[in-house]
Amino acid sequence: MMSIQRNALRTAVRAAAQAQQQPAALAGVRYASTKSLVDAVAEVVPEKQEQLKQLKAKHADSSLGEVKVSNLLGGMRGLKIMLWEGSVLDADTGITFHGKSIPDCEKELPTAKDLGQEGKEMLPEAMLWLLLTGKVPSVEETKGLSQELAAKGTLPAYAEKVIDSFPKSMHPMTQFSAAVAALNHDSAFAAGYKKGMKKTEYWQPTLEDSISLIAKLPAVAARIYYNVFGRGDGKQAIDSSKDWIGNYSQMIGYGNSVGMTDYLRLYIAIHGDHEGGNVSAHATHLVGSALSDPFLSYSAGLLGLAGPLHGLANQEVLGFMQDMQKSVSENPSKEQITDYLWSVLKSGRVVPGYGHAVLRQPDPRFTALQRFASQRPELQSASIVQLVQKVFEVAPGVLTEHGKTKNPFPNVDAASGCVLYSYGMSEFSYYTVVFGVSRALGALPQLVWDRALGMPIERPKSMSIQALNAFLSK
Ligand SMILES: CC(=O)SCCNC(=O)CCNC(=O)[C@H](O)C(C)(C)COP(=O)(O)OP(=O)(O)OC[C@H]1O[C@@H](n2cnc3c(N)ncnc32)[C@H](O)[C@@H]1OP(=O)(O)O
Ligand SMILES: O=C([O-])CC(=O)C(=O)O
């Protein structure tokens, strides 16, 4: 019965879409090639539009809490001010993706093995499907999406030239953001907007651009890796029988390492979304709210990810761990680690990989990466992986005694880079690029929902100190 209703809805949505006058750039073959995921999203769009309509009708004037001066001065911490569909972050239990925890996703999402690949971890393209539609894709649907991403993953020649023109000394994240912005040359959204597409149609080319960008991220990231560090195949060759990250791993030279390829799958699946308020997701959403296309919007998100308090922390952690090994010993004792942490804190620096703006317990993403490391003998013997575990046993106590951070526990960055390093990726400044391949999985689907739900341009009110004082003295 349910499926009959769904089919009827699907047919109605298709008919409605056909009845709309699509700009030429949006019609025909492009949609045919993205059919399965477009169909899955099209099924959900009317349901969610109706939910939003009801919410507005019933609760437009309901309060979500008061705004205090401390919120305005404290980075808007805790204010409920954004709509975000893909995931919700709980301070104690961590992230859930449409209600599913990381262990739930590990059980339910199709894995590399399901697609006939070597490896056991969940596939990031299945996470993309879940984030976009709220539904777990079947193996066949995941396979179809993998193939679609492979078919759309080749870089246009102009983008290759743009990347090749960057000096090696330019940070890989600067290169990444600039290259992603350059891809807006081919944006279906920008072309449709120019041709006067209707507001109700916005979400379709936003989805088309998002899939196109996600498909190309491995090649962009791999070309940067090759140009800067001389590693990888240098061609960004795509094998249509491989999954999305199987291809990425191959392009950057780890195709023969099942461990690294599977680690990249897990890493990229779980870094995909962390609700809306984090800097990279929020920046993407903010820029997108001006109807900048998905390439420009995600380029902005990547620039936010490049900050050391956010995504760059995984690069920082590795440097931090190695400095500790150099100045203390390769296998420092807990006492030596404690002393080292205190020396860092006393010099006014932060302990990278620890603390979080929302979380108040160890990050379940850290736990997932530690689970991976604990199942791999080759990682268990790596001194840097052992050090991550030892620091985890010591740092929460030191940070608690130090008394400043609200969360003395590790976030995901405490573990992520050390495993990349152990598998041979020794170029720290590249680590955040791997994170940037991932964050698109959450930030871009929300742009699709922003457009499908007709979300307005974001424009909060700011106040000067003088205006605040004047307001408060009334
Ligand atoms: C994927 C991610 O983005 S996860 C986060 C990655 N970033 C890091 O690991 C960098 C280290 N951590 C930090 O700098 C912080 O914990 C952040 C940026 C993640 C969160 O910042 P906030 O929400 O402001 O944290 P919090 O409210 O606990 O900060 C209170 C004080 O504790 C300090 N503090 C927070 N974390 C740490 C830490 N790991 N080491 C030392 N001091 C810390 C803050 O700098 C702040 O000091 P101040 O009052 O002198 O300004
Ligand atoms: O949620 C945050 O503020 C930071 C974070 O862990 C992420 O974006 O993955």
UniProtKB/TrEMBL annotation:
<keyword id="KW-0496">Mitochondrion</keyword>
<dbReference type="GO" id="GO:0006099">
    <property type="term" value="P:tricarboxylic acid cycle"/>
</dbReference>
<keyword id="KW-0809">Transit peptide</keyword>
<dbReference type="GO" id="GO:0005759">
    <property type="term" value="C:mitochondrial matrix"/>
</dbReference>
<dbReference type="InterPro" id="IPR019810">
    <property type="entry name" value="Citrate_synthase_AS"/>
</dbReference>
<dbReference type="GO" id="GO:0046912">
    <property type="term" value="F:acyltransferase activity, acyl groups converted into alkyl on transfer"/>
</dbReference>
<dbReference type="GO" id="GO:0005975">
    <property type="term" value="P:carbohydrate metabolic process"/>
</dbReference>
<dbReference type="InterPro" id="IPR036969">
    <property type="entry name" value="Citrate_synthase_sf"/>
</dbReference>
<comment type="similarity">
    <text>Belongs to the citrate synthase family.</text>
</comment>
<dbReference type="Pfam" id="PF00285">
    <property type="entry name" value="Citrate_synt"/>
</dbReference>
<dbReference type="InterPro" id="IPR002020">
    <property type="entry name" value="Citrate_synthase"/>
</dbReference>
<protein>
    <recommendedName>
        <fullName>Citrate synthase</fullName>
    </recommendedName>
</protein>
<keyword id="KW-0808">Transferase</keyword>
<dbReference type="InterPro" id="IPR016142">
    <property type="entry name" value="Citrate_synth-like_lrg_a-sub"/>
</dbReference>
<dbReference type="InterPro" id="IPR016143">
    <property type="entry name" value="Citrate_synth-like_sm_a-sub"/>
</dbReference>
